[in-house]
Amino acid sequence: QNTDDTPVQWLFVDRSAPLWVVIVISAVAGAALSEVLGWMIRRRRRNRG
Question: 38 is in which domain, residue-wise?
């Protein structure tokens, strides 16, 4: 089930990958985006004083 290929279409990328790879990459990208946005918000609040 999770090893079946899944079509991935994002921007100019049109590929096929195992479902577990798509899930892992999505989770890592979401966590990284959350960290970056949190860092930006904390930095902005600190600079406003």
Answer: 5-48
- Burial class, 19, CB count within 10 angstroms (exposed 0-12 / middle 13-18 / buried 19+): middle
Q: Beta strands of the chain (E only): which ranges?
A: 5-10, 13-18
Tell me the pairing of strands 5-10 and 13-18. Answer: antiparallel
Q: Are 19 and 3 in contact (CB under 8 A)?
A: yes
What is the average per-residue pLDDT within 4-16? Answer: 90
pTM: 0.73
* Total domain count, the chain: 1
Q: Which residues pair with 13 in a beta bridge?
A: 10
